[in-house]
Amino acid sequence: MKKILMLPIALLGLLLATAPLHAAGLSADEIVAKANQASYYAGADGKADVTMTIKAADGGTRERQFTILRLNDGAEDQKFYVYFQAPADVRKMAFLVWKNADRDDDRWLWLPALNLVKRIAPGDKRTSFVGSDFFYEDVSGRGLDEDAHSLVEETADTYLVRNEPKDPGSVEFAHYLVWIDKTDFLPRKAEYYNKQGDLYRRVEALRVESVDGHPTVMESQASDLKAGTSTINSFSNVSYDIGLNKRIFSERFLRRPPREVSQ
Amino acid sequence: MKLRLTDVSLRFPRSVLLLVALLTLLFAWQFPKVKFDNDPENMLSAKEPVRVFHHEVKEKYALYDFVVVGIVNEADPEGIFNPATLTRIDHLTRELLSLRLGENGLPEVSDFNSGEPSSGGYRSIDLNPARSWQQALNVAFNHQPNKLFDEQGQSVIIGRELIAPSVVDNIKQADLGSLKLEYLMEQAPTTREEAMVIRDDAMSNPLYAGTLVSEDEKAICLYIPIIKKTYSHNVANLVRNLTGDWPETDKVYITGLPVAEDTFGIEMLVQMATSAPLAGLAIFILLLLFFRNLSLIIAPMIVAIVSVICTMGLLIGLGYDVHIMSSMIAIFLMPIAVADSVHILSEFYDTYPRFQDKRETIRYVIGHLFRPMLYTSLTTMAGFASLATTPIPPVQVFGLHVAFGVGLAWMLSMTLIPAYIMLLVPQKQLQKITPKDAKEIPAGGLLNRIVENLGSFSTRRWRPILLLASALVAIAVFGISRIQVNDNPVKWFSPKHEIRVADRVLNSHFGGTYTAYLTLAETQPGICDCEANSNAMHVEVEKRFAEKYPEAVATFQEKLAELKKRYGQISGPDVSRAFVELVELAETLDNKTTALWWELADEINYLDPAGLNARTLHERIAPLEEIPREYKRILHDAVAPLNDLQGEDLLEAALEITDLYTADSFVDFVYEMQAELTAPLFKKPKILAYLEQLQAHLVENPVVGKTSSAVDSLKKAAYELNYLEPPGGLSQSEQAAYRQRNQSFNAIPETAAAVAQVFVQLEGMKKKDSLFHLITRNYQEANVWVQLTSGDNQDMAAVVKDMQVYMQENPPPTPMKIEWAGLTYLNVVWQDKMVKGMMTSLGSSFVVVLVMMMMLFRSVLFGILAMIPLSITITLSYGIIGLVGKEYDMPVAVLSALTLGLSVDFAIHFLERAREIQLKTGNWLETAKQMFKEPAMAISRNAIIIAIGFTPLLLAPLVPYQTVGFFLATIMGVSWLATLFILPALLTPLQNIAFRKPEDEA
Question: What stretch of H or E contains B787?
Fold first, then answer.
């Protein structure tokens, strides 16, 4: 089984889409592949500032700000650098992820207050990203061949694709539905159903804008419908093709953050 | 006037019977509306502050009521950690998680028996009992065993909060010094080795050892959270069903207060349906033995049944739930209702031969029983109505309804019994009753003789009797002083009940199945001590920078002083604004000092390590015009001796040098200070350390088996994050050094920022938000999960008290308030109210009854005399409770009302009749002799019927029912003795005062 991608940042920010015009008669697999490209591979690299607002069931919120750098490394591999700006107590904390197409992802963590770099072993990617309602998998993408895709409905502007896991024991959902925009191929909404047949989770693109010619999700939301919690990611200062140095994505730059994030 | 009611009944017996039948029907009509409430929590009003707080805590920390399922394996050498048992536990967990409502309306769970576990197959299960008797009971009490779903058809088990090895987080070391975040038992083990790994992981996690797994490695506990306590009995049944095919060696025990409470509620209904009728049957048989006349003795049974039906009908009709208390109405009402009619019957039976006429006999009997019966009923009503003064809603409802039932029973005795006898007792049968001196009834005859002999004994030997009575009272008072006020809903089950057994077994293996929550919060949250913060920064900035940058430090301190003046004591947003200004200032200060070092470091950081050595490094840096030559020279001088370093290593070395200078960043300093000074309470290391000590103190208490807090999670995570695997081939002492180093990180990190960064890792564990059961999301408040091995209120109360003392003696660094929640604690609160409420109500009803007695007898002396048997009865009953070590719990407390109401009855009858007879005889000894004929017989029959009639209760599996049975026998026995021995014994020396001519008293 091809292990999936890892870290953060999401469906959201760094998405690309080379707006292909209505491609009639696409298969479900083709649609999903295009959506994957649009969502996770825009440009050669990208950068965004993210404000993450985690909302508890009682309405209380916690906010985190971080900067994400992403570099495409070959056809499928990618590298991510996530650098926390606020709140003050996690300032300079950083994650590094190498998303590998052919093996488990590599993942490192830098905790400045502990002066500690720790490697994180591969694990379940459908777990919370820094305590939010987003999963690591939402941030970096889910392997296309992990699910069987079928086109449920095609309207004037949307494809509705149903996805069923090939290994149901490996995930918490029984299936999920994705609404994909036909013009930019960016998913607008994904809804997850559990094995009891209930809708329990939703991920949405709340605002999409074109940045440097790439349709980009500027605001996204993930909701845990059972627990009543939700998280909104707002993206700003999004830029593509900024010429990131590959060396940034290394342990050395965890300890001493690159100027791309620290300035 | 005394006979008016009875005369009407005698004249229109048919109408009376019809009226009663209609009335009964009307009340019985209400029955289908019945709602049951099994929740002892409702002993407290819903608005009771502690209950409100309990629910706030549950909400705030997302805590739920748990069904605790313990699995114990003592047979396997590895205990519970063998592959087969762990696989069963894994399956059980997944079955519970998969619970859903099937299309046929029955529950469905994942099917592991056929095909692959992950095949997604479901199987249907039916929890309805196989026995038709139980099915009928379930229908009667509207209990649906398959109801495991809410109105929307969602499972009542909150899957995401289930605590089981397959779904709890585990942090552990993995390959290449990496850290693995996964579930404790991702997959059921297939080999012993895999099982051992799970054991080691579990045992090394302070949150799990003693909670999820027992420290003796023999047991595992699942904690199944449910949306409402009232589903816990059904969930327990589900677990029993799912584990039904497990082998003998894997024993399954189910406990926890919610299960105990809910199961008690359900079994109590069963008792209501069995014990009360059984007691009725026993009374019926005794009546038959005494009176040998079936048609006659049906009358008291009808009175009892009609009173119970009407009272329950009233309760249901008024919209009250049938609660644990009100389920006992039948049991309490029956003896009281029977008592009045037995007095009538007894007299009727004894005097009928004299009159040989039903109407005349009834008029005679009621004629002299009217007053004592009215008064005994009024006093009993007073006793129960006084419960309305307790602060416990179900007890109020109970007291008032029983009072209603007692009044009704009196009414029925006055009307229904005469009407019944007139209409339905054939004259012929009564002819069989012969004058009592014929001694035709062995039981009655024997009793007659005993009672008569008693009479002469108690008048002749009054001195020793009074002496003995005083001695007994003295002993009883000593017994009362030893009464232990205590309660524990689990102990409402008899010791062999499966819940009691589970409670014992699991509490011997684990840190405790009883849960209490200790919450800590700042007394005055949100108050920022800006002055202290400012001073702290003033000192710290000087310490760090004064030597190198005295001018910058001066500027910074000026700014601090200015901000302090401007913002003063104001808190909240102003604090952030102040810090923004400080950061801006720090940036300009850095520009003059460390910023250029930053730039140099940054340039080095981006260098391609390929081909890099000390010389090429220098060559590449030299062209950077914006970097001062002096900086380049410092770097060059430092790097030059490292000429054996190349590439990455050299880069690192160079960066370590620049680090020395970039460390002097004012910006970093300000952020650092912000993190430390504005940290929420429970990110501050010294507060966390206080919490740690507080927990250490808590577990010193022998009933506290275990405590868990965010500190435990924090330390475990800090340890695993910092852990270094010792390389192979080390000597013992080197390995020990590694261990010691690693162990030193099993501690609270030293700064608030470090604490925060470890907490962030815990927030992102696989099981999302589990940290927030122990700490609020803003880290301002914390919750300690306290596990107790005993649910006794006394034990919980002792822990609460101990904590108060501890907090006083060891005040926290920041003023904090602690508050308790959790079911175990709630029980303490309502029990406390109950005990105090019962004392007050007993006291007040004692006074009321005393006044009533004085009015009845129009004599202070007789009023006091009437109170003597009841005082002695209460004293002796509670004395016995104290002496045998039975605890004063809810049922015992409620019984005090019954004691008062019942035990005064005999005295009233005795004194009233004694005065009546004395008027005729004018001679006390002659009076006494007559007293020990019919009057004493009526009292004795009553005592025996009630005492023995309720012995079936002793067989009930629920302790409160046993207590009632025991108590009724004791009350009857003692008040019977007190009335027949002590009253005559007292009246003998007092006869001259007591029996003055009535004119004298008026």
Answer: strand B781-788
**Cβ contacts of B763 on chain A, cutoff 8 Å:** 128, 130-131
Phi-psi region of B568 (alpha: psi -120 to 50; beta: other; left: phi over 0): left
Q: Which of B659, B679, B764 sits opposite A129 (nearest CB)?
A: B764
Cα distance between residue B976 and residue B904, in whole Å = 10
Contacts of B533 (CB under 8 A, 6+ apart): B575, B673, B677, B678
Report the top-level CATH class of A3-261. Answer: mainly beta
- Cα distances (Å, whole numbers) of residue B717 to A123, B764, B869: 17, 12, 68
The Cα–Cα gap between B92 and B164 comes to: 10
Across the interface, whether the CB atoms of A112 and B757 are under 8 A apart is answered yes
Nearest residue of A to residue B167 by CA position? A172
Taking only the tens place, the pLDDT of each residue in B110-151 is 887 654 544 558 888 888 888 887 777 777 777 788 889 998
Helix axes of B13-28 and B294-317: crossing angle, nearest 10 degrees: 40
Give contacts of A93 with chain B, Cβ < 8 Å: 757, 760
State the average pLDDT for chain B.
86
Q: Do B764 and A60 touch (CB under 8 A)?
A: no
CB A39 within 8 A of CB A214: no
- pLDDT value at A123 more than 80: no
Query: In this complex, which of B174, B683, B772 lies closest to A89 when CB atoms are compared?
Result: B683
Give the count of alpha carbons within 13 A of B883, CB side only.
14
pTM (2 d.p.): 0.86
| Domains of chain A, residue spans | 3-261
Q: Do residues A104 and A122 touch, judged by C-beta distance below 8 A?
A: yes
pLDDT confidence of residue B120: 59
Q: Would residue B36 be called left, alpha or beta, if left means φ above 0 and alpha means ψ between -120 and 50 degrees? A: beta
pLDDT at B68 over 50: yes
Backbone angles phi, psi at B201, to 5 degrees: -60, -45
Amino acid at B32: P
* Residue pLDDT, tens place only, B252-271: 999 888 888 888 888 877 88
